[in-house]
Amino acid sequence: MTPPLRWLRRAAPTAGLLAVVLGAGAGVGAAAPGAAVPGAPAHQPRHARAVTPQVLPAEGRFASPPAPPAPPRTPPPRRAARPVPGPGTKPGPGTNQRPSVAPDGAATPDGATGPAAAAAPSAPATGTGTLILYDTSGTWGWLGEQYAMQAANLVSRFGTWQAHPVSSYTAGQLSAYAAVVYVGSTYDEQVPTAFLTDVLAGSRPVVWMYDNIWQLTSQAPTFPTTYGWDWSGFDTSAIGTVSYKGTSLTRYAANAAGIMNYASVDTTKATVLAEAVRGDGTRFPWALRSRNLTYIGEIPFAYADMTDRYLAVADLFYDVLAPQTATRHRGLVRVEDVGPDADPAELRAIADYLSSVQVPFSVAVYPRYVDANGTYNNGVPQDYTLASRPDVVSALNYMTQRGGTLIMHGWTHQYSNVANPYSGASADDFEFFRAHVDAQDYVVYDGPVPGDSQTWATGRMNSSAAAFTAAGLPVPTTFEFPHYAASAPDYAAARAKFPRRYDRGLYFRNQLAGGAVDHTKYGGQFFPYPVTDVHGSFVIPENIGNIEPEPFNNHPARLPAALIDAAQRNLVVRDGFASMFYHPYLGVDYLRQTVEGVRALGYTFVAAGSVVAGG
């Protein structure tokens, strides 16, 4: 989800610092340093069809966490090798793939990897699963956990994982895993010598991101000749493009955290995997691989959007964890925000078109319509369910007969009788999270709703199921959170009740570290392939967004060309998706253009139900 705050650059004597200005209860997000970048976008009420239909919060410019502070202007230090320690002490407690979430929102590591993890394809080395290590020190140390969760979600595609701070690493721990990912996010955090030594031993593939690579190279005086490259320092110029597999991927150019540049690269020993492209067209390596080490010169999760260099790291994980994976590109279509107030003719038209071109599709349904304040009924509140709208139920059955599958999109798609953030009406508002629109027309996330708990969320899901049954419709087995936003206990409720979600997720501070979940610091993430996320749910991806004919709330219009462009860039992911959603009140023409354009790129449209763990 897109974050609700502003990140501002302040001058510092030796390094750039980030200062955050939070709204009341606002969570951490990814607005950009030195620029007024929106938080979660506001949207026009969906019923105001003459104006602009809704945009989900995930469709903002940035859903991901921010970058670390800018590095010092001087190059990182070059030091002598450290003495190699003897056998390590017992490793500190790490957190694993499935932290359980209590109703009060406390994360409690449960010591198991969980049955929902995708089966790991043939690993390039012995060991099981992936070890994820992350930084924790300094003012911005909490960002390390955010990045680790993003990495964990992606590597779950390939099997189980465990994650803990790099500071608790002990000698030989690496050998228990098929691969290791280290996210260096705190400048010059002390990386354990045991880890450096084990990486240089070369027994396991290692993906190293951003900071502290200088500690590794210092530990091996012959590193430049052995590995074929040597770093020089961070390039903090405005870089807006990363070239990967011949495709230009976007990068937020105002990201001042920098990308590592190189003093030398011997291409007979090191393979340049992707290149950073400056505004003047000059290039330098963005990621490279030699021997067992893949090095990515920045945090690829910061300021990520749907056409971003984040896609490169999502694909690079295949090289490390499933190198034999065949190329395959699948498309998904979801018809969005269908409630008892839907127009049956519009639903039938969408179904007729998709059926005629043999595109299976999902239909996201909320079964109870509430206009708590009479916003769309001359001040008279409305409240009715699908059971009282047989024409809509008939249209939904018509859709399922033509290749559609119903999924549950909340119960009412709004909360109480308050503007959350717009009107108190279904499809306008959030249901499982609080939000408001600020004076600059940004949507600000305010945190869990009053009375939120796993029991409360389960109650709403049960009420929704009962409304489907009362209408004579099958109860869906897939859940999508309205506006892609919920608390940790709400995600736990979804995990317990549904075998899969079909959305993007929010991930909160302390979900890996343990203790009380901090809903004021979070990052959102989209996926180019199915994952089993930190909440423990199998997640069907949605990654190219939706059509928005008009700009509003500081966000540009998105027409079919934008979705097709996102699909084209997602082709760099060798077994990836182009997954979209579409509002039926837009008619068929935009949908036709998008489906034809995505299909022309080589995507095969499939049913969401065919997307399974490991497949």
Overall description:
The protein is α/β, with parallel strands linked by helices. The chain is 20% helix and 26% strand. It contains 11 helices and 33 strands. It has a 10-stranded mixed beta sheet, covered by helices on one side. Strands 18, 19, 22, 32 and 33 form a 5-stranded parallel beta sheet that branches. A 4-stranded mixed beta sheet has the order 25-26-31-30. Strand 1 and strand 2 form a beta hairpin. The longest helix has 17 residues. It starts with 5 loop residues before the first strand and ends in a 10-residue tail after the last strand. The relative contact order is 0.16. The N terminus is likely disordered.
Strand tally: 33
User: What class do helices, strands and sheet pairing give?
Assistant: alpha/beta
Largest sheet features: 10 strands, mixed
- Strand coverage percent: 25-35%
The strands making up the biggest β-sheet line up spatially as 4-8-7-9-10-17-16-15-12-13
Mean pLDDT, as a whole number?
86
Q: Which residues form runs of ≥5 with pLDDT under 50?
A: 1-61, 88-105, 107-124
Number of helices: 11
Q: Report, as a whole number of angstroms, the end-to-end distance.
A: 26 Å
Radius of gyration: 24 Å
Measured as a percent range, the helix fraction is 10-25%
The outline comes out as: elongated
